């Protein structure tokens, strides 16, 4: 928010039902990219999912990737409202996009992280779940042994 927005919010007043003046503040949503996983089988599902959020206030762009079962909404929207609207309008099970690129996770093939249903190059986000986070995180001894045989380490073992 800029200076003019702040000043205009200071001088914006509304009357409550009892007659007292109350400061009314508008909370504006930030520009966000919301990714949602929705199962789409056919072209009809694809258009239904796309039209469910297309007319929503604040939405600037909608992209649907039916092969990955992914809906991407860009705009000044609340992610939870977008998720609820997709669930209500389509009647389908929808969830926030649970996958991240496998380069982000230290151990992408740890139990609980690797998902066979994930699109190519993606694994489940283990950093948000405390149970799988400890499995996906590398310990200091693992890093020490990995660096001992690494080509990036100038003092690495040259036996290999």
Q: Could you give a short description of this structure?
A:
With 160 residues, the chain is an alpha+beta fold. Helices cover 30% and strands 22% of the residues. Among the domains are: 32-97, Alpha-Beta Plaits (2-Layer Sandwich); 100-144, no CATH class.
Task: List the main descriptive attributes of the protein structure presented here.
single chain; 160 residues; alpha+beta; Alpha-Beta Plaits; 4-stranded antiparallel β-sheet; two-stranded antiparallel sheet; 5 helices; 22% strand; flat
Give an overview in words.
- The structure is a single chain.
- The longest helix is centred in the first third of the chain and has 12 residues, at 43-54.
- Among the domains are: 32-97, 2-Layer Sandwich (Alpha-Beta Plaits); 100-144, no CATH class.
- The model has no long low-confidence stretch (mean pLDDT 76).
- The termini are far apart.
- The protein has five helices and eight strands; from the N terminus they run αβββαββαβββαα.
- It is of the alpha+beta class.
- Strand 1 (13-15) and strand 2 (21-23) form a beta hairpin.
- Helices cover 30% and strands 22% of the residues.
- The protein has a four-stranded antiparallel sheet with strand order 4-5-3-6, covered by helices on one side. Strands 1-2 form a two-stranded antiparallel sheet.
């Amino acid at each position: 928010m800029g200076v003019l927005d702040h000043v205009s919010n200071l001088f914006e007043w509304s009357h409550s039902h009892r007659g007292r003046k109350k400061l009314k503040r508008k909370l504006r949503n930030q520009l966000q990219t919301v990714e949602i996983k929705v199962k789409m089988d056919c072209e009809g599902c694809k258009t239904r999912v796309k039209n469910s959020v297309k007319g929503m206030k604040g939405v600037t762009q909608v992209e649907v990737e039916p092969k990955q079962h992914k809906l991407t909404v860009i705009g000044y929207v609340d992610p939870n409202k977008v998720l609820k609207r997709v669930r209500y309008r389509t009647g389908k099970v929808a969830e926030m996009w649970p996958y991240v690129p496998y380069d982000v996770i230290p151990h992408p093939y740890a139990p609980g992280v690797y998902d066979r249903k994930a699109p190519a190059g993606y694994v489940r986000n283990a950093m948000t779940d405390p149970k799988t986070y400890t499995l996906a995180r590398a310990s200091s001894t693992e890093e020490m042994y990995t660096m001992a045989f690494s080509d990036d380490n100038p003092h690495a073992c040259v036996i290999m």
